[in-house]
Structure prediction request, 380 residues.
Amino acid sequence: MNKLLILIFFLLNCSYGFCQWEPVFHREGSPSFKELFFFNQDTGFIITYNSLINTYDGGNNWEEQFMDNVYFQFADVVSDSSAVICCNYEFDSLFVTTNRGVTWIKYPTNLESFIPISDIDYISLHKSVAITDDAPIYVFHGNYPFGTLSSFSMIEATGMTSVITMVNEDTGYVCGEIIGWDNIGTVYKTTNGGYSWFSNDDMYGPTYFMQFTDPNTGFGWGYDGFCSTTNGGLNWSFHEINIGIDYKYRYEGIQYFINNLSGFLFVSDILFDDSSLRSLAKTNDGGLNWYRTDFSLSDFDFGYQDIYCFNDDTCFILTTNTIYKSENASAPDLTINILNKNLESLHLFPNPATTILHLQLALKENNYTIQTFNLVGELM
Prediction:
């Protein structure tokens, strides 16, 4: 067994393209940013309570447009050209675009203002499903995007609902701090467009956040941490987020999965010296294994609102008042300092995303084997 003194420096230099996250839009004051959406890899928008912030060049430049007599809460992109911003109860209106945000048309909501919606998902411009804080689920459809209330279905449970997501016209999910009348599931499912819902004891999983990448594969964060399903939410498995940090407390964060395997997750840790550490973790195998990316934002940034990715490398992070963009979001954090540890092997995964890697080995008289692999796993 060799005793190694290993100092590995992951050198970041903006001139070489290694800076991971760059602010592309920032402003002081309110209103804070809420959600981030893209129609395609060029055109997207952000909503605040009373403004839209648009990009037409892949998120490199953004322009803010303030609007009078609005109070935006939710938004959805329903096609590559159409989106809805909902629900402006105070002024009884919502806004619709069918040309990727070039123009927005105002419509009446046709919704009673007393309905306290906590989340809404638009299946199309003509149908939406909404949840309230205390579990009723409403189904709307009509000639306008919000339409008229055609029916509603009550989950047979009590508690707080957090998120609704419709995978397609028929299949959708609700999660939250829900106590069923005959089960302890935290997830409810519909297979008929939201008109009826079911759950069981095995559907114990996410409570705070949930995302599905197809009708069978979903991810979330619940009482017991990160979880996933591969059978349409009927069973959920919890997975440890091991990114090499010893922590006293860990808090859930926003997550974003690009597909069934590749995803990002914000992790906020309170360490044993009571300091805090924020990390952006990356998985390439559906959440079974994670590593810590080279993620660092300003100390003045707080309130992470959203994350959106075109692919493994090009991603955006939305804080309360700043938009960050990265062209190398998956790059691992390789600043490792291991002193006087007895190691038989040290495996860096993934391979360093840089051309500069320094190794200092303590005992030069020993023989060491260093192996590197290319991006498809072939030994170099």
Notes: The CA atoms of residues 87 and 94 lie 6 Å apart. Residues 1-18+332-380 form one domain. The two ends are 25 Å apart (CA to CA).
